[in-house]
Write a structure and sequence with these properties.
- By secondary structure, this protein is of the alpha+beta class.
- The protein has one domain.
- Helix content is 23%, strand content 28%.
- The protein has helices at residues 49-56, 64-78, and strands spanning 2-5, 7-8, 15-19, 22-25, 36-41, 44-46, 83-86.
- Strands 1-7-5-6 form a four-stranded antiparallel beta sheet, with helices on one face. It has a three-stranded antiparallel beta sheet with strand order 2-3-4, with no helix packed on it.
- β3 and β4 (22-25) form a beta hairpin.
- The protein is globular, with a radius of gyration of 13 Å.
Length: 100
Amino acid sequence: MKLREIQRDEKRTRLKVECAGSMVSVSSHCAFCRHCRGVIVRETRYDPPQDAAIQRLSPGGSGDDTLMQAVMQFNSLVRDAQAIECDDDEDTGFASRFRR
């Protein structure tokens, strides 16, 4: 398990982490990546809200709203975060959380 430190731009609006040798956006990559295992805010670790949303989905049902709300919660959480907990120990990069 790796901690990927969040890098902010000078306006503190763009959040990026190093992933597979390049800098990627936390909100467009980590939010949708199955390797994301947690968000570190100060010294507290939070599970990604997307994991709980996926567990609540019923088979055959449409979960678009549920998943989008979870991603929005994730993006709110990372605004104050220092790092992303990532289980990509081989540094292979992005793998979709929603496609198996």
